[in-house]
């Protein structure tokens, strides 16, 4: 439809939806979600109002890291279907004006990948230099270990080649050697293969680690940016410039900033530090953590965009908070030690917020109105729960809850064959939380999300506008103005669980009228005096600021329309 | 009758007044609500009109007031015409929002006027609007005489208008009424009307006379009179100038109220329209006046802007209401160049019929449905203004005739989908 994001920078207006193929819908009844099942649920996603799906790794893989250990870049994991199934899915998505980006792990492969098997066979192999080998485990000592719970070193000894190979993640995930031009060519061919099929872009996993240099942290190196710029240039040239690269760089904003280049590197990058601070701000009932992180967020090129999220398939990452903040977050959100994982908290949105509907909506209000493109994690739109007693990060990757039918309507398989058990606890279990029930309930979270997303679509200022924070005396109120061309929005959020008054200095808008966007209610006209509002617990307002020359002007036909 | 029509005035009181008046050949019904500023003007025109044109006919004015706080009925008590004063309470829902004709509970007021006229054994009931100050003695003659002389049973007004006045009537209401009922009325819902004793007897005794709902009586009486072969006349009056503090001019509210009334009549009284094909002109009383070609004061740019915003914001609502091909055609209207932008008549007819069908089937909340029609109305109006900007009054009239003809041609689209 005409108002769907179009044009080369469509991603600036888009709402993304992160979905795991295995977790969404099982089309063949084997207990694992697949592309046939996902295709059958596209109408639901279209109805939800999202614009672009982000598919977690879908490639052939031993699945020792949930697919982030790719064994063949050119095939779909057999449990998820075939390349033909994927093509059908992609075409059906496009037919609904939904775009699709897919995860691509650029930094490493599975140790099962034929490249690695050939590489380990010896230095004479044509693939010998596809990976980073060393006779000793002493190089690159300044590089930190990321998975501190499981890995002792970034080097692992390979008994076949009798040498150490470099890995920033698990020991079964050897890092590719981007100093080797053949690796860069091979990876570009992989990208071409999927873009030729119509894929709208990639979410590039773990990009800061592509290149290693002695004496550095081996993160964010200039050489790594060089590789990404090269990829961007080739993709732009060959595919018309509307395919996106979304960088996963779990770094401080000023360290992420270079991944945008001068608009010639990645189109988008996740804003990692914002997310924990949103939770902090709500728990502290205090706006400072959010305002503060934006003062530390550098401007980005006009064509670039931040990716915002509340939760994703990984743990709620606390890498980007201080130790003190981290302790507070653990205290506030993860009092059960099982909930901690690495430096994060493995919980879904609703349980993190004690299933408090008002807080869930407030956080989604923030997600949809702060500068960037929002990414909704599958299931969070209905307030799904988690199962912290499943291993690793599986607790937030359980089957989508469609209905109260067997296996939550996810699969017709015997329940013992499901890839993970469905959530069955009394609060978040599929009997209580499911799409079918919420679709029928006008006041459900699902329908609230639909309304918020649909409202977000009515102004480009959400995706493109500059942000300017207001500084009312009440610290529990987070208020900001988003401006883009003629559109001006005023967003007011109450971070507190109690009703709050606020006086906003809106003198710059004197004579204008705030129109609440969800109900289209006109509020009193702004004057020179402080503008008084009161907000209910965790309440929020989205206003469109209507200038006096808008809206009330007559068409000239009203008085005598009949 | 239901509560909506119950008159809180003690029956004995209005009975007493009517009995005191005795038989009256001409009864003027005047529903009022806070019309103190204008009601004297109307009463003076009534007095002058009766004196000049019907000097020998016993006449009376029946005022039906729905709770004025400004002493309107008291002003009428000494209007120089024999008067009966009735009061009624408008239904609460109607008192909360003032309707487009400025009078809460108009249906109940009209029913009371019908009843009073029959009890006074009137040959003619003429109902007038208390806030129309351009009324003259001539209007009384134009409205009453065709009935008085047995040439018509129902006379409705047609006002002399600027060509961009009454756009909603011209582009939507009149074409719909024409296609539905089969008569080319210029200005349905013109406010005033005159009824013969025959028609009064017929409608008051009719089991279908609307006693619930809102703003239905005018349209139902028109439809009933046409369906049951009563003679219809259209009295050409002068310009209609309204001086009202209560009349609603908020376009979305007006659109919602007017179409809600028409769609409800369609819903409840299928026999009035479902089998009707073709259309006939209406007997003209007085000289028809083509629309005046004065320079336009309408803001086409803003209307086009509102239509564009509708396309941006309301597509998802329209998708529930409009048939896919209708929606596709609407979305592909090229509004970029205001000079060449057009809205084809057959498409507009299908839009209107899809909204009628959407209302019929209750596809979404009916008030939302009706309000979402507003940007489409503005888009259609803008296209009409653009297309006729350089046209003469007669050419504008011809363009409107084409709109009505398109609604008539497309009517099978509606009837085939109705059941």
What features would you describe in this structure?
Chain A is 26% helix and 18% strand. Chain A is α/β, with parallel strands linked by helices. Chain A starts with 15 loop residues before the first strand and ends in a 16-residue tail after the last strand. The relative contact order of chain A is 0.09. Chain B has 419 residues and is α/β, with parallel strands linked by helices. Chain B is built from 18 helices and eight strands. An eight-stranded mixed β-sheet of chain B has the order 3-2-1-4-6-5-7-8, with helices on both faces. Chain B starts with 10 loop residues before the first helix and ends with a helix. Residues 1-7 of chain B have low confidence and may be disordered. The chains are: A alpha/beta (562), B alpha/beta (419). The A-B interface holds A 1-3, 454, 458, 553-562 and B 100-101, 161-162, 164-169, 173, 189, 242, 249-251, 254-255, 258, 296-299, 302-303, 306, 311-313, 315-316, 331, 378, 381.
Topology (elements, then pairings):
The complex is a heterodimer of chains A (562) and B (419).
Chain A: E1 16-19, H1 21-24, H2 35-40, H3 42-48, E2 52-55, E3 59-60, E4 72-76, H4 83-95, E5 99-105, H5 114-120, E6 133-134, E7 155-158, E8 163-166, H6 181-196, E9 201-205, H7 222-239, E10 244-247, H8 253-256, E11 268-270, H9 274-284, H10 288-295, E12 305-309, E13 316-317, H11 323-333, E14 340-341, E15 344-345, H12 349-352, H13 357-369, E16 373-377, H14 435-440, H15 445-456, H16 461-464, E17 466-469, E18 477-484, E19 487-494, E20 500-504, E21 513-516, E22 521-522, E23 531-535, E24 540-546
Parallel strand pairs in A: 1-2, 1-16, 2-5, 5-9, 9-10, 10-11, 11-12, 12-16
Antiparallel strand pairs in A: 3-4, 6-8, 7-8, 13-15, 14-15, 17-18, 18-19, 19-24, 20-23, 21-22, 21-24
Helix pairs in contact in A: 6-7, 9-10, 9-11, 13-15
Chain B: H1 11-21, E1 26-32, H2 39-53, E2 59-65, H3 72-77, E3 83-87, H4 92-96, H5 106-119, E4 124-127, H6 137-148, E5 154-158, H7 167-181, E6 193-196, H8 197-205, H9 217-227, E7 232-236, H10 251-268, E8 283-285, H11 300-313, H12 315-321, H13 324-331, H14 345-361, H15 366-371, H16 374-388, H17 393-409, H18 411-418
């Amino acid at each position: 439809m005409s108002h769907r994001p179009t044009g080369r920078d469509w991603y600036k207006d888009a709402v993304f939806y992160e979905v795991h193929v295995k977790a969404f819908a099982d089309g063949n009844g084997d207990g694992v979600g697949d592309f046939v099942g996902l295709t059958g649920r596209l109408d639901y996603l279209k109805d939800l109002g999202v614009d672009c799906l982000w598919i977690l790794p879908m490639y052939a893989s031993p699945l020792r890291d949930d697919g982030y250990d790719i064994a063949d870049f050119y095939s779909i994991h057999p449990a998820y279907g075939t390349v033909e199934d994927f093509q059908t899915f992609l075409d059906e998505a496009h037919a609904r004006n939904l775009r699709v980006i897919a995860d691509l792990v650029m930094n490493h492969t599975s140790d099962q990948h034929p490249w690695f098997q050939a590489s380990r066979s010896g230095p004479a192999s044509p693939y010998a230099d596809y990976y980073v080998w060393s006779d000793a485990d002493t190089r690159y000592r300044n590089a930190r270990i990321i998975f501190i719970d499981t890995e002792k070193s970034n080097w692992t000894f390979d008994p076949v080649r009798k040498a150490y190979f470099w890995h920033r993640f698990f020991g079964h995930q050897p890092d590719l050697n981007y100093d080797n031009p053949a690796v860069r060519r091979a990876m570009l061919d992989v990208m071409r293969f999927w873009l030729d099929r119509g894929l709208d872009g990639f979410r590039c996993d773990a990009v800061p680690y592509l290149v290693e240099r002695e004496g550095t942290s081996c993160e964010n190196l200039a050489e790594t940016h060089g590789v990404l710029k090269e990829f961007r240039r080739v993709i732009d040239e060959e595919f018309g410039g509307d395919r996106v690269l979304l960088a996963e760089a779990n770094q401080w904003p000023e360290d992420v900033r270079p991944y945008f280049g001068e608009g010639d590197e990645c189109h988008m990058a996740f804003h990692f530090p914002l997310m924990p601070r949103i939770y902090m701000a709500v728990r502290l009932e205090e706006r400072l953590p959010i305002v503060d992180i934006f003062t530390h967020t550098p401007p980005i090129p006009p064509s670039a965009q931040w990716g915002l999220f509340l939760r994703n398939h990984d743990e709620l990452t606390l890498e980007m908070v201080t130790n003190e903040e981290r302790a507070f977050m653990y205290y506030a959100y993860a009092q059960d030690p099982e909930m901690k994982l690495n430096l994060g908290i493995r919980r879904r949105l609703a349980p993190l917020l004690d299933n408090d509907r008002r807080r869930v909506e407030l956080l989604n209000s923030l997600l949809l109105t702060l500068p960037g493109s929002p990414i909704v994690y599958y299931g969070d739109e209905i307030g799904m729960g988690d199962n912290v007693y499943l291993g690793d990060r599986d607790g937030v990757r359980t089957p989508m809850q469609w209905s109260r039918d067997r296996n939550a309507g996810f699969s017709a398989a015997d329940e013992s064959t499901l890839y993970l058990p469905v959530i069955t606890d009394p609060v978040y279990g599929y009997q209580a939380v499911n799409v079918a029930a919420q679709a029928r309930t006008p006041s459900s979270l699902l329908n609230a999300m639909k309304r918020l997303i649909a409202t977000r679509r009515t102004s480009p200022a959400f995706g493109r506008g500059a942000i300017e924070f207001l500084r009312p005396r009440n610290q529990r109120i987070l208020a900001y103005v988003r401006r883009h061309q003629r559109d001006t929005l005023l967003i007011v959020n109450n971070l507190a669980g109690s009703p709050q008054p606020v006086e906003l200095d809106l003198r710059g808008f004197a004579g204008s009228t705030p129109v609440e966007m969800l109900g289209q209610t006109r509020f009193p006209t702004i004057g020179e005096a402080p503008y008084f509002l009161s907000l209910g617990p965790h309440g929020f307002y989205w206003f469109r600021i209507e200038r006096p020359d808008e809206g009330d002007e007559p068409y000239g036909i009203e008085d005598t329309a009949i | 009758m239901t509560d909506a029509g119950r008159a809180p005035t003690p029956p004995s009181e209005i009975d007493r007044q009517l009995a005191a008046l005795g038989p009256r050949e001409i009864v003027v019904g005047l529903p009022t609500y806070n019309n103190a500023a204008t009601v004297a003007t109307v009463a003076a025109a009534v007095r002058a009109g009766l004196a000049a044109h019907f000097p020998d006919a016993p006449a009376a004015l029946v005022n039906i007031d729905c709770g004025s706080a400004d002493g309107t009925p008291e002003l009428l008590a000494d209007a120089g015409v024999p008067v009966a004063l009735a009061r009624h309470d408008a239904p609460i829902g109607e008192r909360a929002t003032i309707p487009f004709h400025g009078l809460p509970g108009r249906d109940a007021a009209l029913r009371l006027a019908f009843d009073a006229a029959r009890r006074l054994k009137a040959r003619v009931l003429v109902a007038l609007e208390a806030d129309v100050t351009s009324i003259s003695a001539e209007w009384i003659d134009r409205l009453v005489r065709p009935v008085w002389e047995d040439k018509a049973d129902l006379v409705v007004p047609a006002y002399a208008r600027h060509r961009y006045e009454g756009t909603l009537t011209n582009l939507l209401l009149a074409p719909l009424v024409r296609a539905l009922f089969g008569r080319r009325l210029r200005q349905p819902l013109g406010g005033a009307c005159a009824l013969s004793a025959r028609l009064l007897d017929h409608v008051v005794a009719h089991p279908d006379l609307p006693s619930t709902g809102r703003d239905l009586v005018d349209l139902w009486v028109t439809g009933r009179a046409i369906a049951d072969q009563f003679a219809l006349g259209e009295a050409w009056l002068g310009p209609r100038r309204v001086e009202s503090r209560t009349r609603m001019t908020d376009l979305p509210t007006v659109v919602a109220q007017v179409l809600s009334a028409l769609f409800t009549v369609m819903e409840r009284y299928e026999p009035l329209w479902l089998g009707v094909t073709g259309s006939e002109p209406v007997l003209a009383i007085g000289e028809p006046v083509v629309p005046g070609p004065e320079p336009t004061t309408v803001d086409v740019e803003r209307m086009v802007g509102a239509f564009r915003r509708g396309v941006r914001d309301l597509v998802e609502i329209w998708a529930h209401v409009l048939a896919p091909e209708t929606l596709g055609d609407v979305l592909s209207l090229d509004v970029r160049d205001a000079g060449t932008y057009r809205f084809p008549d057959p498409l507009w007819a299908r839009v209107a019929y899809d909204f009628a069908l959407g209302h019929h089937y209750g596809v979404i909340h009916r008030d939302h449905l009706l309000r979402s029609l507003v940007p489409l109305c503005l888009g259609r109006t803008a296209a009409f203004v653009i297309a006729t900007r350089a046209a003469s009054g007669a050419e504008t009239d011809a363009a409107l005739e084409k709109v009505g003809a398109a609604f008539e041609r497309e009517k099978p689209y509606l009837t085939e989908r109705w059941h």
